[in-house]
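Practice problem 4.
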């Protein structure tokens, strides 16, 4: 009698230096063939149970050249694929399963005895579908989920269309240098050499596979809004506003607000109590964003009121960040550009968030590794852990 294998797959997407938990709806599941009544739609029924007998897993009909795939409701950038393997038998069949976003290869599973969860990195590959391929065994998936985030496309080169190139300390610094250049539309970054290429076109002249580099379009980092996407339900309130920026501001002023949906045609703004609302759905004419993204990291015209440790004059907002990093008690900052004045705060968001034109504020746990984009000097030798990661130089 044939043994069956079940695996549950979750697709995660994350931005550089962050861990996003946004999910997107999967539709139109299909597969190479169906065995034991395991239809493709079972893998997107919301049930992650790994026991095939619970009738919530898809199953291929033969033991070679098998695949399963589903479409994304909205185009997404994938960080990694997490596979939950069957535990009661046949777990070794997962070995060698290949993961793709669209037609781009992410990686494959390497089976380990006793291991039940496998993570395959995709590094921000952008696509409209996820595909799992098992060429040498039966394929059974018990659930697939996709989470949104991330901009970098792993092992992808935006070829040609170069403006200039130079060495930087990190991918974040490469992003920053692109933001500072009006002609820059995208970047390619090589970690091994710390080389950054600024490009004059989205995706360069063409996209090509090149191991060891990663690329991203500028508009991905700058934009938090997801076009034609509704963060459904979880409404706090709704009202008319003059622009999407005003919708963002009203969310910033409301402590319970975690995300927004905005409709340009009616100038209607919905404040939501959860990241992504209750769920993400496709809805032409609206756009949605999570508060933590558009805060990113400074919140314009926003004061983190009270909870002051100290205040002083600095040369820039980056220096204000650096001084907070040097203070163990500092959790957030407020900075005024006109006076170059910096306030260090003992709490995230101070005692409360208030609207104050001319200042901007940020929580330190928002910033990328090291808390501030700065180049290492040739004589630097240290390791810093801050804002979601560790950075070392020797």
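Answer key:
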């Amino acid at each position: 009698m044939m043994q069956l294998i079940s695996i549950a797959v979750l697709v995660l997407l994350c931005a550089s230096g962050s861990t996003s938990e946004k999910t997107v709806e999967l539709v139109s599941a299909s597969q190479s063939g169906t065995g034991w009544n395991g239809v493709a739609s079972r893998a997107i029924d919301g049930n992650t149970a790994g026991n095939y007998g619970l009738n919530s897993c898809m199953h291929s009909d033969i033991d070679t050249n098998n695949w399963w795939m589903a479409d994304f409701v909205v185009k997404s950038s994938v960080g990694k694929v997490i596979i939950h393997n069957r535990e009661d038998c046949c777990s070794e069949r997962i070995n060698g399963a290949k993961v793709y976003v669209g037609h781009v290869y992410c990686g494959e599973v390497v089976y380990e005895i006793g291991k039940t969860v496998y993570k395959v990195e995709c590094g921000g590959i952008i696509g409209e579908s996820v595909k799992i391929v098992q060429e040498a065994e039966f394929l059974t998936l018990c659930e697939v989920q996709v989470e949104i985030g991330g901009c970098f496309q792993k092992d992808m080169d935006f070829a040609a269309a170069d403006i200039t190139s130079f060495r930087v300390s990190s991918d974040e610094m490469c992003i920053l240098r692109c933001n500072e250049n009006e002609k820059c539309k995208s970047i390619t970054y090589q970690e091994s050499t710390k080389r950054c290429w600024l490009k004059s076109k989205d995706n360069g002249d063409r996209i090509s596979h090149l191991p060891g580099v990663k690329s991203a379009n500028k508009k991905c980092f700058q934009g938090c809004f997801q076009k034609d996407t509704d963060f459904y339900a979880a409404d706090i309130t709704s009202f008319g506003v003059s622009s999407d920026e005003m919708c963002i501001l009203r969310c910033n002023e409301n402590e319970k607000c975690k995300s927004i949906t905005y409709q340009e045609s009616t100038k209607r703004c919905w404040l939501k109590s959860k990241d992504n609302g209750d769920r993400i759905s496709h809805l032409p004419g609206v756009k949605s964003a999570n508060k933590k993204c558009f805060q990113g990291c400074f919140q314009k015209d926003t004061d983190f009121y009270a909870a002051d440790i100290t205040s002083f004059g600095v040369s820039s907002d980056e220096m204000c960040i650096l001084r907070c990093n040097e203070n163990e008690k500092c959790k957030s900052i407020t900075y005024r550009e006109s006076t170059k004045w910096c306030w260090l705060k003992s709490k995230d968001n101070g005692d409360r968030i208030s609207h104050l034109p001319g200042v901007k504020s940020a929580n330190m746990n928002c910033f990328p590794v090291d808390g501030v984009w700065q180049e290492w000097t040739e004589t630097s030798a240290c390791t810093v852990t801050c804002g979601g990661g560790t950075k070392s130089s020797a």
